[in-house]
């Protein structure tokens, strides 16, 4: 089989492919396993019972069943969900969101693929921009998401010891450099696999750097604020139009519904919806 450079790049060994293969095969083996890898959400019986009840009610309703399985939503995502989410976040946090600030994707993994390649890569005239990861280690699922090689610049952390057997990763701001070749900054909060949570102060400094260079700060909140909030330290939910906040329904127990949520300035959402239409037609 002869493949293009895209074909070769995305069929080569990738960390996330072998991780997901390992997880799937381990589960399929039928052994009594405790899944501790891959950001795998736990199964909480009470949540499962609640979801089961909602699904059973939906199956009884013609209209709900049609909405669930029989309709293509617009490429931006299901309108009622988006409107409800905007209202919820405005009520809780006063973010002033309009539905035009929110898009849904098939899992947040798909959002990262689109966003990284929207802001990183070939800008023409020989300009190639990277996505800056100011605090490594970072989520392995980013590593192979660039259509172009060398999409990421990652920075080693400052490690401060907080107790005899404890340490904390911090952004080494002396080493973080935003240049004319930086297309976006991205942090996951908390990070998979370390669980490190970038502090409010660190986030504010990164946002100031992004603002100064007129580039977005992508915040991956798959485990974070405002939900599912799998957090054991204080972290303030934060959004404004410098920030692209990516959320997910996966980590509070719905990974198979593949719902990623992107909250961003209107032009970002418009662009993302366009790419989503080409890649997926619509979001599940
Ligand atoms: C930090 C982080 N971000 C994003 C994702 C992607 O999750 P999903 O595509 O299910 O939303 C994961 C999955 O493990 C993750 O750990």
Structural commentary:
- Strand 7, helix 7 and strand 8 form a beta-alpha-beta unit.
- The protein has 2 domains: 29 residues, no CATH class; 206 residues, Type I PLP-dependent aspartate aminotransferase-like (Major domain) (Aspartate Aminotransferase, domain 2, 3-Layer(aba) Sandwich).
- Strands 1, 2, 3, 4, 7, 8, 9 and 10 form an 8-stranded mixed β-sheet that branches.
- The chain is 36% helix and 17% strand.
- The protein is of the alpha/beta class and 284 residues long.
- The protein is globular, with a radius of gyration of 20 Å.
- It has 8 helices and 10 strands.
- The structure holds pyridoxal-5'-phosphate.
- Pyridoxal-5'-phosphate binds next to helix 6.
Q: In the CATH scheme, what's the topology name of the largest domain?
A: Aspartate Aminotransferase, domain 2
Instruction: State the end-to-end CA separation.
Output: 32 Å
Silhouette: globular
Helix content: 25-40%
User: Which small compounds were modeled alongside the protein?
Assistant: pyridoxal-5'-phosphate
The CATH superfamily of the largest domain is identified as Type I PLP-dependent aspartate aminotransferase-like (Major domain)
Treating each run of at least 4 consecutive H or I residues as one helix, how many helices?
A: 8
- The helix/strand series, from N terminus to C terminus, equals HHHHHEHEEEEEEHEEEH
Radius of gyration: 20 Å
